[in-house]
Amino acid sequence: MSIEELELLAKVASKYYVEEKTQNEIAQEMGLSRVKIYRLLKEAKNKNVVVININWPIKESQNLERQFEEIFKLKKAFIIQSRQSIEMPVKTMMGRIVAKYLETILVDGMTMAICMGSSTYEVIQAINPTFRVKVRVAQAVGSLPFKTTEKDSSELARVLSEKLGGEVIYLSSPMIANSPESAQILKNQVVIQNTLDAARNADVVLSGIGKLDAVNSTLVRNQILTVEEVEELIANDAVGDILGQIIKSNGEKMECEYNDRVIGITHEEIKKIPISIALANGPEKAAAILGALRSGATNVLCTDEITAMAVLELNKEH
Fold first, then answer.
1. What pLDDT digit, counting tens, does each position of 112-136 carry?
2. Which of 11, 69, 130, 183 lies deepest, with the highest CB count within 10 Å?
3. Which domains, and CATH codes, for the chain?
4. Of residues 53, 27, 51, 30, the one with CA closest to residue 38
5. Which residues contact 239 (CB under 8 A, 6 or more apart)?
6. What start-end ranges are recorded for coiled-coil regions in this protein (predicted)?
7. For residue range 153-183, what is the model confidence (pLDDT) as tens digits?
8. What is the mean predicted confidence (pLDDT) over 33-42?
9. Contacts for 70-77 with beta carbons within 8 Å, 24 or more apart?
10. Inter-axis angle of helices 3-13 and 34-46, to 10 degrees?
């Protein structure tokens, strides 16, 4: 479609949506039929000349939020109603809540560390395009294998830095090395050290919480671990991961070769970051979320009511 054609779509759309004129009025002004105006408006939507955004109200459960903040010593808990619709899935609602929170805490000169995942992606998508702040965005973990369907940390860091108007600090490394020895060699590289230094000294870190699952785990899907290896970890009390680091049900870092192969900030370093935000939802993730909360590596949590109640119930049992 030519520039002239796009300009026509924009002109018609502006008269209809901004000036709030009727299709008949626009048709008379422009010497076109009302049917033609209708088709142009439809085409304007199809070509993304017009993008309609509906701000659906998101209700939070304040009672559950207070419980989580008290029990797990959180800076902040965001627990939304578990209503999911075609208009806005739960994960999208969570992304919007955290995006608004970020807009209240980020200021010029801060450093923000992020990792891969669909939860991080939803937050970045929801950040208001008019919100601009000069922050450094650092990759907290290396990148996944090239052929992956996951939302990779390097791409997310780039998009977030562009949205905010800041700068990006890439971690030029795979997420997992072939061995602990290879991981140490990579970590000793100056360019990797510089990015990890920026991430570990960040003011804010944003991540999801991964469930350790032998069937449907990111680690298995990307051939980082085998089904047998994941099953062995689970048998030894592993429940999930934060920023690539596998944790146990009591929140402690799992002592295993896998964790020593991760190229990223460590479990202890995550705990030292002032604001550590994690998003996760689904009752099947309750054990992983509880482990993350017990670890001290998460001090701001966003989830939904059903998941929150599953976490509280599990906390009582164990």
1. 999 988 899 999 999 988 899 999 9
2. 183
3. 3-46 (1.10.10.10), 62-317 (3.40.50.1360)
4. 27
5. 211, 212, 247, 248, 249, 287, 288, 290, 291
6. none
7. 888 999 999 999 999 999 999 999 999 999 9
8. 93
9. 71/312, 71/315, 72/293, 72/294, 72/301, 73/299, 74/293, 74/298, 74/299, 74/300, 74/301, 75/275, 75/299, 75/300, 76/101, 76/299, 76/300, 76/301, 77/300, 77/301, 77/302
10. 110
Burial status of residue 81 (CB atoms within 10 A of its CB: 0-12, 13-18, 19 or more): middle
Is the pLDDT score of 301 beyond 60? yes
Which residue's structure tokens are 């935000």?
277
Backbone angles phi, psi at 201, to 5 degrees: -100, 20
Amino acid making up residue 271: K
What is the reported pTM?
0.79
DSSP sequence for the chain? --HHHHHHHHHHHIIIIIS---HHHHHHHHT--HHHHHHHHHHHHHTTSS---------B-HHHHHHHHHHTT-SEEEEE-----SS--HHHHHHHHHHHHHHHH--TT-EEEE--SHHHHHHHHHS-TT-----EEEESB-BPPSS--S--HHHHHHHHHHHHT-EEE---SBSB-SSHHHHHHHHTSHHHHHHHHHHHT-SEEEEEEEE--SSS-HHHHTTSS-HHHHHHHHHTTEEEEETTEEEETTSPBP-SHHHHHB-B--HHHHHHSSEEEEE--SGGGHHHHHHHHHHTS-SEEEEEHHHHHHHHHHHHH-
